[in-house]
Amino acid sequence: MGRLGPTEIILIVAVILLMFGGKKIPELMKGLGTGIKEFKNASKDNSSTEKKEEEK
Length: 56
Prior knowledge:
By secondary structure, the chain is mainly alpha-helical. The protein has helices at residues 6-20, 25-55. 82% of the residues lie in helices and 0% in strands.
């Protein structure tokens, strides 16, 4: 149970297309990309803050 085969991936993509439609998918992916980018920036800021505190 942990790996997704090609059939499962195709099924998931088909369900997503049915739920959101083709026009909405790019907007969703853009929002997802923005969220991931913000998360990476926040984690990077947090790790640099921790390093500064350790140096004190």
